[in-house]
Design brief:
The complex is a heterodimer of chains A (383) and B (273). Chain A has 383 residues and is an alpha/beta fold. Chain A contains 14 helices and 15 strands. Chain A folds into 2 domains: 178 residues, Rossmann fold (3-Layer(aba) Sandwich); 112 residues, 3-Layer(aba) Sandwich (Rossmann fold), CATH 3.40.50.920. Chain B has 273 residues and is α/β, with parallel strands linked by helices. Chain B has one domain: Thiamin diphosphate (ThDP)-binding fold, Pyr/PP domains (Rossmann fold), CATH 3.40.50. Helices cover 39% and strands 17% of the residues of chain B. The chains are: A alpha/beta (383), B alpha/beta (273). Strand 9 of chain A pairs parallel with strand 2 of chain B, so a sheet runs across the interface. The complex binds thiamine diphosphate and iron/sulfur cluster. The site of thiamine diphosphate has 17 residues of chain B, from helix 4. Chain A: This is 2-oxoacid:acceptor oxidoreductase subunit alpha. Chain A: Keywords: Oxidoreductase.
């Protein structure tokens, strides 16, 4: 069997992942640097009978994918910066109504229109807290194109399994990078489809009742189980219910269904971590420079530096990060913002004073030299 | 079919009652007209999906035994667009308020018109924001008193019919809750129409609009609709051009969005492949 090997940009790796996962509906509004995802899916989806629609703005796109998801489709939208801000009310609605959807946020410089064509990781906290009220969220990222493919497939899987929006936090640098990507054969990576109710048509279906497997099986608009969906606090039937007991149970459910699974949801990669005295925590593009810095320190100075790459950014993998950073002399968090994940790392490690920060917010990716400068300050040795 | 033969109860989630509308609110009459229209068409509960926004009007979706969604303020039409495009077999109906449809959702309204997607939009126009306490809407009109316009609304109102006509809606009609039977027949035609249809129904809000503007109770407000509206082209307009016209302003056949996408995009590329 000849492998399907392609030399493609990150946007195509994301598109291939979406198609592999069975995405059959996309609604979006163009914005740099995410537009290539929309353009690619506009071309590819109809070939498979899927649908693409360019809406009048990001708010409409978010609402549109929610509508399509309610009618049974595997849906995605993609955006950047200001568009991600506009989608927040819809993301909250999808959390509240437990509607599966994938939102790719190809990050660029901010705030505001900031810098459309250069890289940043400034939306990390917005992905977590952008929408109002208490809810949890799954957000994932990757640092190379093979992983972008894989993480995109996983994002769809988790959206369907957990009935939640999943945010893909890729960035401009990986979006425009070209690399070899091997597209797996069907079946090589697991694809999880929506769990649909087995309740016969005509019997009472509760769209928000948890079954014995801990799942909340869905039905599609038009499939015969008539149900109501509202962004108001609702009961198991989906009807508004603002009684204190109901609201309390609902909020706990929305938060805990994800936060209680933080370890299971954690996708991460380790590089040279077995004997690491120093750990660089990184995610997205930043990981690539972290790996180079670690290799240079090991090869040239014999200083044992390892890298912990977070692919699941939210829910934050408290236990894993705490454990991996436990017996190290220092932890460096590298990110392209003024300090977002670094505060999470400080929150979870046993010795927060050992956590250092290496960042850039000048349109440039963090270079290996930037991280090495931090390592030099900490270890007293430089390469 | 006569009214007596239509059992509209089969379309209602009676467990959800009593509903939240104030006594005398016009929205209940709109709901009745909508359900009778659906009954006239002999539609099954599973054929219909009702998507609303946020506001007193938009609470209607919860009372109806179809697949229903009560979405975000202003976002009913794009959500409905997703439902319709995902499952073109569904009759998708969007009943919402004048604020929801023309202020926060105004952009979506004009683009749904332009696309000509087969959705029936029913604008329950009480010229006020009922749910949030009587602030003015783009349909209030100059001089109307509202909680955010204690000295009278300074800005002009939309003429919804002209707005949606200009944006390309292929079925455009106006009626009132006083003319309940006419409303029923108009909604029926709008649902039957293939393409984007807009039905404006003047619907009284005695609680917020009525009190502030001293228009009397619900019966007086309904009488106002009787006295101040006329069928399109009525002779009375010559004497009094301020009268509001009722009727079907546009009814034309234009290719529908889902069908165009299927035929001109999906079928074409799949054949090529
Ligand atoms: C984003 C957002 N902005 C504002 C509101 C508050 N809000 C709720 S209903 C409403 C107005 C409803 O008026 P209308 O659509 O005319 O319906 P009515 O209540 O008069 O039937 C507003 C402003 C909201 N829910 N969401
Ligand atoms: S406030 Fe007005 S629109 Fe709302 S229910 Fe009462 S009468 Fe109806």
């Amino acid at each position: 069997m000849t492998k399907n090997i392609q030399f493609i940009p990150g946007s195509d790796a994301c598109i291939e992942g979406a198609l592999y996962a069975g995405c059959d509906f996309f609604a979006g509004y163009p914005i740099t640097p995410s537009s290539e995802v929309a353009e690619g899916l506009a071309a590819e989806l109809p070939k498979r009978g899927g649908k693409f629609i360019q809406m009048e703005d990001e708010i409409a796109s978010m609402a549109c994918v929610i509508g399509a998801a309610l009618a049974g489709k595997k849906v995605m939208t993609a955006t950047s910066g200001p568009g991600f801000s506009l989608k927040q009310e819809g993301i909250g609605y999808a959390c509240m109504t437990e509607t599966p959807c994938v939102i790719a946020n190809i990050q660029r410089g901010g705030p505001s229109t900031g810098n459309p064509t250069h890289v940043a990781q400034g939306d990390t906290m917005q992905a977590r807290w952008g929408s109002h009220g208490d809810h949890s969220i799954i957000a994932m990222t990757a640092s190379n194109l093979q992983d972008i493919f894989k993480i995109t497939v996983e994002a769809f899987n988790l959206a369907e399994q957990y009935r939640t929006p999943v945010i893909l936090m890729f960035d401009e640098a990986t979006q425009h990078l070209r690399e070899k990507v091997i597209i797996p054969e069907p079946g090589e990576i697991e694809v999880i489809d929506r769990i649909r109710t087995k309740i016969p048509v005509g019997e009472q279906y509760y769209p928000y009742r948890t079954d014995e497997n801990g799942q909340r099986p869905m039905s599609d608009f038009g499939a015969g189980h008539r149900f109501h969906v509202t962004g108001l606090h609702h009961n198991l039937l989906g009807f508004p219910d603002v009684s204190p007991e109901n609201v309390n149970a609902l909020i706990h459910h929305l938060v805990e269904k994800i936060d209680n699974k933080a370890n299971e949801l954690a996708r991460y990669k380790e590089y040279y971590m077995d004997d690491a005295d120093y750990v660089i925590v990184a995610y997205g593009t930043t990981t690539r420079s972290a790996i180079q810095a670690a290799e240079d320190y090991r090869n040239q100075l014999g200083v044992k530096v390892g890298v912990l790459e977070l692919q699941t950014v939210w829910p934050f993998a408290d236990d894993i990060v705490r454990e991996k950073c436990a017996n190290t002399k220092a932890v460096i968090v590298a990110e392209m913002n003024m300090g977002q994940i670094v505060n999470e790392v400080r929150r979870v490690v046993t010795q927060p004073e050992k956590v250092f920060f290496s960042n850039r917010v000048d349109n440039q990716i963090i270079k290996p030299g930037d991280i090495k400068a931090a390592l030099k300050m900490i270890t007293g040795k430089g390469v | 079919m006569s009214d007596t033969q239509i059992d509209i109860k089969k379309y209602l989630r009676t467990q959800f009652f009593p509903q939240m509308w104030c006594p005398g609110c016009g929205h209940g009459t709109v709901m009745g007209a909508l359900l009778r229209a659906i009954g006239d068409l002999g539609l099954d509960n599973d054929d219909v999906s009702v998507i609303s926004g946020i506001g007193c009007s938009s609470r209607i979706s919860g009372y109806l035994d179809f697949n229903t969604a009560h979405t975000m303020h202003g976002r009913a039409l794009p959500t409905a667009t997703g439902v319709k495009l995902a499952n073109p077999n569904l009759k998708v109906i969007v009943p919402f308020g004048d604020g929801d449809s023309t202020a926060i959702g105004g952009n979506h309204l004009i683009h749904a018109c332009r696309r000509n997607i087969d959705i029936t939009a029913i604008v329950m126009n009480n010229r006020i924001y009922g749910m949030t306490g009587g602030q003015y809407s783009p349909m209030s009109g100059p001089g109307v008193k509202a909680s955010t316009a204690p000295y009278g609304v300074p800005d002009r109102a939309f003429d919804l019919m002209e707005l949606v006509k200009g944006a390309g809606a292929t079925f455009v009609a106006r009626t009132t809750v006083y003319h309940a039977k006419e409303a029923q027949n108009t909604i029926k035609k709008a649902i039957e129409h293939k393409g984007f249809s807009v039905v404006e129904i003047l619907s009284q809000c005695p609680t917020q609009f009525g009190r502030k503007n001293k228009t009397g109770e619900a019966p007086q407000m309904m009488e106002w609709y009787k006295d101040n509206t006329v069928p399109m082209g009525s002779k009375k307009l010559e004497e009094n051009p301020d009268l509001i016209q009722r009727g079907i302003f546009v009814d034309e056949q234009v290719p529908e969005y889902c069908e165009v996408y299927q035929a001109n995009v999906i079928d074409k590329v799949m054949k090529k492949g």
